[in-house]
Design a protein that fits this description.
320 residues, mainly alpha, 12 helices, globular, disordered N terminus
């Protein structure tokens, strides 16, 4: 990432390119998957094992550390000087959002891996026996397990919000410089976490589905998606009534040939309207087929990727 300050004219170029947009998506995906996994774990009944609930917990535990690791790798590559990345870990500026993000990630990332080791303890005993000493050490802290899970949930929430704060701290870009953005990123991270956990749970953990499971998950995802729409509306209404550069930027975004289509067809059409139609159709007709859930999940994930790219690119291109 590059330092962004000074004249607006410099922002006609893309200073925060696709690796950053993808990093923002992956960090949100990791946080969302972990939050959903923990929520399901907190509310799971003991007789629900080997069900979609169990699969959802496992999917979140698997996706979360992998997504954040891949995202951090993209971030390091984008810095251009990967060998100096360690400086971010030892030099802190507590007035910087990036420093707070680094601190969150320093604790969150290893805890996400530890959570995965706990969830997959049985599989580790069968296939990765060299990791057994670690799982045994973790088991000794069983009395603190619930407290650690609450801390991890809080950290996941912070990581999801921090990606929004990272952009909103850039005062020269109207689309980014709004307090709505962290909230939008947290809600969309939660939505894509539900979608990814369901998708991976169904495809890779052989979940046993029933109507009640699918109905619950459809309703949960529908509520998260329905919350995104008014937040997006608040974002644009805020820009409109702020006037000045914000209003100019808003008009530029929705008159831009590519970015207006990216929003209407990618973010709104694919990521929000299509999942709502699928969920309402399934719920109304009681047609709780796995195919509906898979298509619904894919649409949500594509929509959240589009949202991150729309925010990152349209924000930089469509300014006064």
């Amino acid at each position: 990432m590059n330092n962004m300050a000074g004249s607006l004219m410099q922002y006609n170029e893309i200073y925060w390119p696709w690796p950053i947009a993808l990093y923002l998506f992956l960090a949100g995906l990791s946080a969302g998957c972990l939050m959903v996994s923990l929520i399901v774990k907190f509310n799971r009944f003991t007789h629900n094992t080997n069900s979609i609930w169990d699969a959802t917990i496992k999917a979140g535990a698997l996706i979360s550390p992998l997504a954040i690791s891949l995202g951090l790798l993209l971030l390091i590559i984008d810095l251009g000087k990967p060998l100096t990345f360690y400086l971010l870990l030892i030099k802190y500026n507590f007035t910087s959002v990036m420093t707070l993000g680094v601190l969150f990630l320093l604790v969150y990332t290893p805890l996400a891996f530890l959570y995965a080791l706990i969830i997959f303890e049985r599989e580790i005993g069968l296939y990765f026996r060299f990791l057994i000493p670690i799982t045994n050490s973790i088991r000794k802290m069983a009395n603190f397990a619930k407290m650690i899970e609450y801390v991890l949930f809080f950290l996941a929430l912070c990581v999801g919000a921090y990606t929004g704060f990272l952009l909103s701290a850039i005062s020269k870009i109207p689309l980014w410089n709004t307090p709505i953005l962290p909230l939008l990123f947290v809600v969309s991270a939660f939505s894509c976490g539900i979608a990814a956990n369901i998708l991976v749970g169904i495809l890779f953990f052989k979940a046993h589905l029933n109507k009640e499971n699918i109905k619950y998950l459809l309703v949960l995802d529908l509520r998260a998606i329905m919350l995104e729409i008014p937040i997006l509306l608040l974002l644009f209404v805020g820009m409109y009534y702020s006037g000045g550069e914000s209003l100019i930027s808003l008009k530029a975004i929705f008159s831009h040939e590519f970015y207006s289509k990216l929003f209407w067809f990618g973010v709104l059409g694919t990521g929000l309207i299509l999942p709502i139609l699928i969920a309402l159709t399934a719920l109304k007709n009681h047609a709780y087929k796995p195919a509906f859930i898979i298509i619904n999940s894919l649409a949500v994930l594509v929509g959240v990727v589009m949202l991150r790219f729309f925010i990152v690119y349209a924000g930089q291109v469509c300014i006064s």
